[in-house]
Amino acid sequence: MKKCIFLILISSLIFSCKETPFKINKTVVLNGTIANYDQDTLYMNDVSSESMLFKEKIHSITLNGKTNFKYKFELEKPTYFQIGRTFLYLSPGDSLIANLDTRDRSFASFKGIGEEANNYLTNVPYPKGGSFWGDSEISSKIVTYKEVPEAFKKSFDNRMNELSSLTNVSEDFKHLEKVRSKLDYVNSLSSIYYLYYGKLRKGEITQEEMNLQVQEANNYLTPFKKPFLNDFNNTNYLQLEVFQNILYQLKNEDFRKKLELPELSTTLKEYTITNELLNELKYNGYSNQLAEKLKEGAEKVTDQNYAAVLQDVQKAYETITKGNPASDLTFTKLDGSTIKLSDYKGKVIVLDLWATWCGPCMQEKPFFEALENKYHGNENIALISLSIDTEKVWKKYFEKNKIVGDQLQINRSQLTNYKVAGIPRFFVIDKNFNIVDVFAPLPSSGNLEKLIKQYI
C-alpha cells in the first residue's frame, strides 16, 4: 500500500513539472537618475534595430522632477541601446540602477545585474571623434604619422585588457566589443587628419598642404589596417557605429584590392545601397528623381527587410511633399506661453530649425536674420527661428545674444511627421497651410528668398 502511495506521489510530481515549464525572465528593470537634462521625458533608442534594420524603436521614459526614472520593459535578446551619448547593452533579466549625465558617457555608472557590460561601455571611444584620437594621453605625444600605428596599438591593447578582465558578461558581448576595438583602431588610422588639423587652424599649413600630407600618411598607414579587418562580413557588426564608418572604406574596390580583402557580402552591399538612399532622402529631401531611385532600389535589393524599408519610406515621405497639408506643431515662446504653427495660417510660414550646438545652423543664422529684417512688418509672411535645444539652453542663449524676429522652441520629438534627421532644416508653408517645401534651400544660397517670393 505504501509503495502505491509513493508511486502516485512521484507521478503527480512528474505530471506537475510537465504542466509548469521553466519561464525565462525577459523583463529589464532600469531605474536611476540623469543629470544636466531639462525635459520631462527620456528617450532611449534601440541601436541594434535602427542600425541593422533601419527600424526606429524609441522607448519614452517618464522622468520625475526631470531627474529620476523607473522603467520596465520586455526584451527578447541582448540589445544595444542609446540614451543621449551613453551606450547601454541590455539583456533579458537585467536589473540596473543607472546614474547618467548628458554631458559625457564617461560620467555614467551602473549597479546591479548587467553592470559590468554597461560600465565597460562608458569608456568606449567616440568613432566620430576619430576613435583613439580622443585618448589624449597617447595622441598628444604623436609627432609624425609613422608613429601612429604603434601608438594606437597601445590604446587597442588597453581596451583588450579591460575587456578580458570582465567576468560577468557574455561571450557574444566580448566578441562584439573586441570587434569594436579592432575597428576603432582602423578608424583611428583613417582619421590621420587629426594630426594636421591643429596646424591648419593656426595657419601654419594651407588646406592644400594638409590634403597632400594626409594622402602621404594614408598611403603609409593603409597596410597596417589589414590584420584588424580579417572578419568583417558579419551583419551583427552593423549595430556598432564604427563598423558603419569603416563600411564605406570596405565597399571601395581599390581599398579591398590593396589589402587583398574579400568581397563584401550581398547583404552588406544591399545595406550600403539602402543606407545611401535613406541618407539622400533625409538630408536632401524627397523629389521625383529620388522617388525613382527608391523604387529601383526596392526592386534591386533581394533582402526583404531592406526592400520593405525603401518601399515604406517612400510612402511615408510622400505625405510631406508639395501640396500636402502641414502637420500642426506647438511651440514655446520666450515668456513661457505656447503658440501653434496653425496660428500663422493665412501667411507664408518660413521655419528655421536650429540649435546652439549646430555649427552649420549658426553659420546660416545671419542669413536668416537678414531675411527677418528685410520682411519685418510684412503681414503676408512669418519668419520663425525654431530651436530644438532644451528650453533651458535656448533661453540661456538669449541672455547673451540679441533677439531677432520670432524666436520659438520645440521638443524635437514633435517633429516626427516632418522626418527631421538633421539640422539646419528650413520649411516653407503657404497661406492655406499646405506644404511648399520642408527641405527648402539654405538662406545663404539666395534660393530660399526666391522660393518665398513665389508665394507671398
**Count of discrete structural domains:** 4
Give the low-pLDDT segments.
1-18
The helix-and-strand class reads: alpha+beta
What is the rounded distance between the termini?
Answer: 100 Å
Strand % is: 15-25%
Please give the order of strands in the largest beta sheet: 10-9-13-12-11-14-15
**Main sheet properties:** 7 strands, mixed
Number of H/I helices: 16
Global outline: globular
Mean pLDDT: 92
Number of strands: 15
Tell me the Rg in angstroms.
27 Å
Helix content class: 40-55%
SSE inventory with pairings:
Layout: H1 2-19, E1 27-35, E2 41-46, H2 47-53, E3 58-62, E4 68-74, E5 79-83, E6 86-90, E7 95-101, E8 109-113, H3 115-121, H4 136-139, H5 148-164, H6 171-190, H7 194-202, H8 207-221, H9 241-250, H10 253-259, H11 266-284, H12 288-300, H13 304-317, E9 330-333, E10 338-340, E11 348-354, H14 359-374, E12 381-387, H15 391-400, E13 406-409, E14 425-429, E15 435-437, H16 447-453
Parallel strand pairs: 1-7, 11-12, 12-13
Antiparallel strand pairs: 1-4, 2-3, 2-5, 5-6, 7-8, 9-10, 9-13, 11-14, 14-15
